[in-house]
UniProtKB/TrEMBL annotation:
Cofactor entry: Zn(2+)
CDD domains attached to this UniProt entry: M1_APN
Species for this entry: Novosphingobium cyanobacteriorum
Peptidase M1 alanyl aminopeptidase C-terminal domain ranges (all copies): 537-858
EC number from the UniProt entry: 3.4.11.2
Name recorded for this polypeptide: Aminopeptidase N
Limits of the Peptidase M1 alanyl aminopeptidase Ig-like fold domain: 441-531
Positions of the Aminopeptidase N-like N-terminal domain: 80-183
Protein family: Belongs to the peptidase M1 family.
Length: 858
């Protein structure tokens, strides 16, 4: 396989300051005429112009207005030797959007045409130096049938339009901001717009439009509000203003990812635009707000300052995730947002960091760049920059980002440029900190606490585990917000920022006449795993008293993790099991009774650690045992606190629907109460869930109730599932939920349900949302995926093989769950590996799947 290495970067030989594109639109044969003004790059002059292509052929090539035959192909790339300093190269291609099931390049979705060019889709439309360090000013003309494509959109501003012959029309767009080809976009279709406007602080009036299919416009209000809030927030918090007179968003049903930040023309998965109370949960509302903000924020972190090469992906993605996390924290409950972000990191990124696909946030090599749009690059990337905010403090960090944007505006920059700007602007020395960009793996910090006289000494030892290609690691810089609580007063004497930078280091604090209770990595100030021997008693103390809400959550989690891990390992005597459960029950009861807590936070505190996080603590892991112990603890908590759960369910059910925090908290707890009652009192839980389902005025309540029913073997289950399907027939996003709920359910027959659902008339492999709804939920459900027979593994491997020729990008996303085989007990591990080998033996695999499978077998 061809491996691209970060250190092999060379500047492009030719630059393309201008490009004019002319599209004759058609669903199955769109003609593309591309006129490139090319100039030799003084930084790396060479005679050959390399234009990348992928699955396209040149119909004609002209140079300086003359037909030119002296070009050649090198694989999929078109090469032309050019004698002068500057030339005009014109190339004609024809593409078939309907046949483009990969959804990369120009493709058809429900009768409309749209593009997805990141990372390397532009080369599937026309020949071009398709690399992010070639920035061009785009002029785009498109013509097509007026009935089929009444709306014609591209980046920048509309400059001209008119009528053509035979019912056609045309439009021309011009984007004044030079951009890389991955930010090019075109949309043509029958769409309706919801409109609003925003005036920037320097007085520019920006027209905002969200384009959707007719009938969906009533579900765009939340996205529009989120967009306006994002524009305001970026001015206020980062000093960044929008820079065009219009900002368009288009929602499409067929999309490989969440959304795309094309300059002035964001394209979104409908999932992250459409929301109303009846069809979208509170979680969906948050996701819409977060993704709209994320894509908008890219206008500066990604578009105005872009990436030099794809190894720098975290430069834009890590930073933009941090920005969207900060925005959402400011809009809602900051502690709850932090907990959710850490939960995602632990569920998705920690397993990546400890598996065969582990890579640094700035990878060193790749075969297929699409495989590097990972939780590591995005979420760990955000955590790494968040640590800079911890080290610098918000004001100095802002000085750093101001300098970064000033210094690199209009450039294709590197992660090193970012770090240097933060160093210079914030006045930090990040020399050693840079290792976070180089080393993969989640550092583990072992903590020992010693007390003598009035001094407490913390001895911290860090270990960065070996990862593929990186057997030996250097110590990282690990900032740990820490507090020492006095047991008697329940208070601490101020927070300390401990910066662990050596393999082993001690920190002493005086003024502690009695041994204090340690609260460390408060706010999850560093993305590490802390191993500290804290007694159950101290964890119960912290869960009740810590003034850092994240630390309270963490204490609850640790209490449960410690107990479940020991239980799964068979280390608990009956008395120890009772004592462990008693401590957990006590902590839960305190949380349920604590009048000072809001319900949103209470809801977080009573969520048990997820199975994938528990798997991370155990190697090798028996997923069946983890499921059994976790469910049994749930049942025990359901029984022990039955009165509390039923009272809670009654109280929360009386709160009317609104989007305010109190009502959202009540909805969250309402379903949590059912989650605990379900294993303890299934008949009562089913009755309550059915009542919640029937009375629901919103999707949060309805989905929550259905989720609980889907996991139970009760008569209400089938009735509610049938009702849901019929009630929302035709609404693709809600039918996705119907598939997901069943695939992710705790029902003992969930695997058979998934197998049957694959044959349901609503199931299709051509829509990524539908594929993910069924199979991602199944792959994330240990009860399905890790079925001891191996049928879950076989099902996912079959899916990969079937989907790969249709959409290799999406197919490759299903490989990592199988790749975790080394962490699983031997019998299942052998079955998982066998499935990987079966996939590897298939000829003609996409580069996407081939790379993931071969690395997973190493
Ligand atoms: N920057 C966008 C990445 C993206 C993408 C990547 C691979 C294949 C399809 C894709 N669609 C969008 C999304 C973002 O992070 O904002
Ligand atoms: Zn992004």
């Amino acid at each position: 396989p061809t491996v691209i290495n970060r250190l092999d970067y060379t500047p492009p030989a030719w630059l393309v300051p201008q490009i004019a594109l002319d599209f004759a639109l058609s669903l199955d044969a769109t003609r593309v005429l591309s006129v490139l003004s090319v100039e030799r790059n003084p930084a790396n002059p060479a005679p050959t112009l390399r234009l990348n292509g992928d699955g396209i052929a040149a119909r004609s090539v002209n140079v300086d207005g003359q037909p030119h035959n002296d070009w050649r192909m090198d694989g999929a790339d078109l090469l032309i030797d050019l004698p002068g300093e500057a030339h005009t190269v014109t190339i004609e291609t024809v593409v078939n959007p309907t046949a483009n099931t990969q959804l990369s390049g120009l493709y058809a979705s429900g009768g409309m045409l749209c593009t997805q060019c990141e990372a390397e889709g532009f080369r599937r439309i026309t020949f071009f130096p398709d690399r992010p360090d070639v920035l061009s000013v785009y002029t785009v003309k498109m013509a097509g049938d007026k009935q089929k494509f009444p709306i014609l959109l591209s980046n920048g501003n509309p400059v001209a339009s008119g009528e053509g012959e035979d019912g056609t029309h045309w439009a021309e767009w011009h984007d004044p901001w030079p951009k890389p080809s991955y930010l090019f976009a075109l949309v043509a279709g029958d769409l309706v717009a919801s409109r609003d406007s925003f005036t920037t602080r320097s007085g520019r009036k920006v027209d905002l439009a969200i384009y959707v299919r007719a009938g969906d416009e009533a579900r765009t209000d939340h996205a529009m509000r989120s967009l306006i809030a994002s524009m305001e927030w970026d001015e206020e918090v980062y000093g960044r203003e929008y820079d065009l007179d219009l900002f368009n968003i288009v929602a499409v049903s067929d999309f490989n990812a969440g959304a795309m930040e094309n300059k002035g023309l964001n394209v979104f998965n409908t999932r992250y635009i459409l929301a109303d109370p009846e069809t979208a949960t509170d979680g969906d509302y948050d996701a819409v707000e977060g993704v709209v903000a994320h894509e908008y924020f890219h206008n500066w972190s990604g578009n105005r300052v872009t990436c030099r090469d794809w190894f720098q992906l975290s430069l834009k993605e890590g930073f933009t995730v941090l920005r969207d996390q900060q925005f959402s924290a400011d809009r809602g409950s900051a502690p709850v947002k932090r907990i959710e972000d850490v939960r995602i990191l632990r569920a998705a990124q920690f397993p990546e960091d400890s598996g065969p696909l582990a890579h640094p946030i700035r990878p060193d090599s790749y075969q297929e760049i699409s495989n590097f749009y990972t939780a590591t690059v995005y979420n760990k990337g955000a955590e790494v920059i968040r640590m800079m905010t911890v080290l610098a403090g918000p004001e100095r960090f802002r000085k750093g980002t101001d300098l970064y944007f000033d210094r690199h505006d209009g450039e294709a920059a590197t992660c090193e440029d970012f770090v240097k700007a933060i160093e210079d602007g914030a006045g930090l020395d990040l020399t050693q900190f840079r290792r976070w960009y180089q080393q993969a793996g989640t550092p583990r910090v072992d903590v020992a606490v010693a007390h003598a006289g009035d001094t407490v000494t913390l001895t911290l030892k860090q270990t960065v585990p070996p990862t593929p290609g990186q057997p030996d690691k250097q110590p990282m810089v690990i900032p740990l917000r820490t507090a020492l609580f006095d047991r008697a007063t329940g208070k601490h004497d101020g927070e300390h920022l401990i910066v662990l930078a050596e393999a082993e280091q001690s920190f002493s604090f005086s003024g502690h006449a009695t041994p204090p209770v340690l609260s460390i990595n408060r706010g999850f100030s560093a993305p590490v795993a802390i191993a500290s021997p804290v007694s159950n008693e101290d964890l119960v103390f912290l869960a009740a008293h810590d003034d850092d809400p994240f630390a309270r959550y963490e204490a609850m989690q640790q209490l449960v993790v410690q107990h479940l891990v020991s239980a799964v390992r068979g280390e608990l005597s009956p008395a120890q099991r009772d004592a462990g459960r008693k401590a957990i029950g006590e902590a839960f009861a305190a949380v349920l009774a604590d009048g000072a807590l809001d319900d949103l936070m209470r809801g977080e505190l009573v969520i048990l650690p997820g199975e994938s996080y528990l798997h991370e603590q155990l190697a090798p892991v028996d997923p069946g045992k983890v499921r059994a112990e976790r469910e049994d603890l749930k049942r025990w908590l359901g029984e022990t606190l039955k009165a509390e759960w039923t009272t809670l369910h009654d109280r929360c059910s009386a709160v009317p629907y609104s989007l305010d925090a109190a009502a959202r908290g009540a909805r969250k707890l309402k379903t949590q109460a059912l989650v605990y009652l379900a294993p303890a009192a299934p008949t009562e839980a089913a009755r309550r869930a059915r009542a919640q389902y029937d009375a629901a005025t919103n999707m949060t309540d309805r989905q929550g109730a259905l989720m609980v029913l889907a996991g139970l073997d009760v008569p209400e289950r089938a009735v509610a599932l049938a009702d849901f399907h019929q009630r929302f027939a035709g609404n693709m996003l809600v039918i996705d939920k119907w598939f997901s709920l069943q695939a992710g359910s705790l029902h003992p027959d969930a695997l058979a349900h998934v197998q049957a659902l694959a044959g349901h008339p609503d199931f299709t492999l051509n829509n990524p949302n539908r594929v993910r709804a069924l199979y991602m939920a199944a792959a994330a459900n240990p009860g399905v995926f890790h079925d001891a027979s191996g049928a879950g593994y076989r099902m996912i491997a079959d899916l990969i093989l079937q989907l790969d020729p249709i959409n290799g990008n999406v197919a490759a996303r299903f490989v990592p769950p199988l790749g975790r085989w080394k962490k699983i007990e031997p019998a299942r591990a052998a079955l998982m590996r066998a499935e990987l080998e079966r996939i590897a033996a298939q000829p003609g695999l996409s580069r996407d799947v081939r790379e993931q499978v071969s690395k997973s077998l190493e």
